[in-house]
From TrEMBL:
<dbReference type="InterPro" id="IPR013783">
    <property type="entry name" value="Ig-like_fold"/>
</dbReference>
<feature type="signal peptide">
    <location>
        <begin position="1"/>
        <end position="18"/>
    </location>
</feature>
<dbReference type="GO" id="GO:0030247">
    <property type="term" value="F:polysaccharide binding"/>
</dbReference>
<keyword id="KW-0732">Signal</keyword>
<dbReference type="InterPro" id="IPR014756">
    <property type="entry name" value="Ig_E-set"/>
</dbReference>
<dbReference type="InterPro" id="IPR008979">
    <property type="entry name" value="Galactose-bd-like_sf"/>
</dbReference>
<dbReference type="Pfam" id="PF18329">
    <property type="entry name" value="SGBP_B_XBD"/>
</dbReference>
<dbReference type="InterPro" id="IPR040475">
    <property type="entry name" value="SGBP_B_XBD"/>
</dbReference>
<feature type="domain" description="Surface glycan-binding protein B xyloglucan binding">
    <location>
        <begin position="206"/>
        <end position="382"/>
    </location>
</feature>
<protein>
    <recommendedName>
        <fullName>Surface glycan-binding protein B xyloglucan binding domain-containing protein</fullName>
    </recommendedName>
</protein>
Length: 384
């Protein structure tokens, strides 16, 4: 009996020992003795497969190339966990996406965690984007009013600095929206948004005073229509830059209502001299902007906008850009942008002249409209 027990014990140790040697032999046959390692990281685009990287932007797809990676179960970038999909994992490759969220701790390291609990750390930087400023809902706003800035990568803490150095009080922040109170001392010019990850300056100007072609603040001699609608104040609308055009008319379908008309020898034409020659030479690089404040929706309205050096008495009815507002600002001032190239081509690409141009803006469209709005600060400014 004792000999039988001894035989079984000998057999057990023999099998166990054989298994140990077999396991060691398998690991030794694997690259790097079976230990996971990362050789390099590259982008996933086939045409750029030879582009090796040490950093990537938020949300970027990357390929991790290495050895013995098949048992990876977790991946971390800084303190954020990424996503691993089993079908995108092999012994030599892991394809994953850098988290798009903002990390709260920055280590500039990537960590792989494997099924056996071991981990592998690799130096890798998540390139967190500097703020991107797209637009301001209303580029003119009085001190104390709240301005809305749109864009992306607005990560707190952040500051909004106006030209002149005054900083606004930030009242609300989302990744793509900032609401900021306009400070005293804010001057015309770009705004700057600063986060922990960079600083950006806007292409647009706050209170843009460049190339103004209709301010409604000067003389009105020679205007056929307009002086009756130019106001210094209004019980329902607060001015943002001196006088403004104020319209309040119920218009039927195809009603012809002219609210700002001046030939090329009028005071209206004198302001259009501010259109730079570069805008006529390269209209695609410019934009026509103005501020509007509506107390009723202008959806369905059509405004015919003529500009040119010719006889506008015969031209303005047939030559014009048709602006379809489809806008309702609910009693706030907002900025409208029209590609100057579209406006210019619709007005027959008139030649540049230093003497100015005749202008005509009138309503006429297939739908009735309650034209109850204010307009100010028409300008032709660079896109960038």
């Amino acid at each position: 009996m004792k000999s039988r027990y001894t035989a079984w014990l000998f057999l057990f140790f023999a099998v166990a020992t054989a298994g140990m040697f077999s396991g060691c032999s398998d690991d030794e046959n694997l690259p790097n003795n079976g230990r996971p390692m990362i050789n390099y990281i590259r982008v996933t685009r086939p045409e750029a497969s030879d582009s090796l990287i040490a950093k990537a932007g938020q949300g970027s797809m990357i390929a991790i190339i290495g050895q013995n990676l098949g048992n990876a179960r977790e991946i971390w970038f800084n303190n954020l966990q990424g996503t691993l999909t089993p079908t995108y994992i092999t012994n030599n490759t892991i394809i994953t996406r850098v988290p798009s969220q903002i990390p709260t701790q920055i280590s500039n390291r990537m960590k792989l965690v494997f099924a056996n609990g071991d981990s592998l750390i690799h130096n890798f930087t998540v390139d967190i984007s500097e703020p991107v400023i797209a637009s301001m809902l209303g580029e003119y706003a009085n001190a104390g009013q709240v301005a809305t800035i749109t864009g992306d990568f607005f990560y707190e803490p952040l500051t909004v600095t106006f030209t002149g150095g005054a900083q606004g009080n930030v009242v609300r922040v989302e990744d793509d929206v900032i609401e900021v109170t306009v400070p005293e001392g804010a001057e015309p010019g770009p705004i700057t948004v600063t986060t922990n990850f960079g600083q950006s300056k806007s292409d647009f100007w706050f209170r843009d005073n460049r190339n103004l072609i209709a301010t409604f603040d000067g003389p009105t001699e020679g205007l056929w229509h307009g002086p009756d609608f130019i106001k210094e104040s209004d019980p329902d609308i607060t001015p943002i830059n001196g006088k403004f055009l104020r319209i309040n008319r119920e218009l039927g379908a195809w009603a012809w209502f002219e609210f700002y008309v001046g030939p090329n020898n009028s005071d209206a034409a004198k302001e259009t001299r501010n259109i730079p020659a570069a805008a006529i030479a390269n209209p695609k690089n410019y934009v026509l902007k103005f501020e509007i404040n509506t107390l009723a929706s202008l959806t369905g309205a059509e405004v015919r906008m003529y500009m040119g050096p010719g006889d506008m008495g015969s031209e303005r009815g047939n030559t014009h850009y048709i602006w379809k507002p489809n806008i309702s600002t609910d009693g706030t001032w907002q900025t409208v942008s029209i590609p100057f190239e579209d406006f210019y081509v619709a007005n027959k690409s008139f030649p540049y002249t230093e003497s100015g141009y005749g202008v005509s803006f009138h309503f006429s469209g297939p739908l009735a409209v309650n034209a109850n709005f204010a307009l100010d600060n028409m300008r032709v400014v660079p896109v960038k």
